[in-house]
From TrEMBL:
It comes from Tanacetum coccineum. This is Integrase, catalytic region, zinc finger, CCHC-type, peptidase aspartic, catalytic.
Length: 190
């Protein structure tokens, strides 16, 4: 039974990356980087965060007579084992970063598909939210970011207002239901 206890503890030991603390992005960056280095293929995971996703590239096949085929995009089966590890690291890096985000930040960031974009946009978002470093910020970049996410943020705000109103006053939900949706007894009888 003692071995079973050790196995259970080992399985659940390292399953979740560090959670972002909105007030200390730099500390979270360091923790995430250390977490990634501790993972299998950690160097490639960090490379995905720092440099962006692995580019599949193109290849040309040489025919038996020596002629070259037109360039074709590589697919996963065409990659070397090292390239496959780098490709897998991109996916792993994206998952690690998304799992380390609080729900409100995750909802703003989850549409990004690569780790570098997630990393850069979380940093920009927290810089804007905390009004930190505005003297040294790139205003054009910040404006473009805010403009890009305006519709998404407004949608989230409307949803939040709608659901918090009902949480405060449960009868408000009932009052917003239209009569056409649920006919009264008198309107259902001819």
């Amino acid at each position: 039974m003692a071995n079973l206890s050790k196995d259970i503890q080992s399985v659940g030991y390292d399953t979740r990356p560090p959670m972002l603390d909105r007030s200390d992005f730099e500390s979270w960056q360091q923790c995430i980087r250390l977490y990634c280095l501790g993972k299998e293929n950690g160097e490639n995971i960090l490379q995905s965060i720092d440099e962006g996703p692995f580019k599949m590239g193109k290849f040309r096949e040489t025919l038996a007579d020596g002629a070259l085929c037109p360039e074709q995009d590589k697919v996963v089966k065409d990659l070397t084992p090292e390239e496959k590890e780098r490709y897998k690291a991109d996916i792993h890096a994206t998952n690690i970063l998304l799992q380390g985000l609080p729900k409100d930040i995750y909802t703003l960031i989850n549409h990004y598909t690569n780790a570098k974009d997630i990393w850069d946009n979380v940093e920009m978002l927290l810089e804007v939210k905390l009004n930190r470093g505005l003297k040294t910020s790139n205003y054009d970049q910040m404006y473009a970011y805010l403009k890009q996410h305006k519709a998404h943020a407004n949608e989230n705000k409307m949803m939040l207002e709608r659901y918090t109103q009902h949480a405060i006053d449960p009868l408000a939900f009932v009052s917003n239901v239209s009569q056409q949706q649920y006919p009264t007894q008198s309107s259902a009888i001819p």
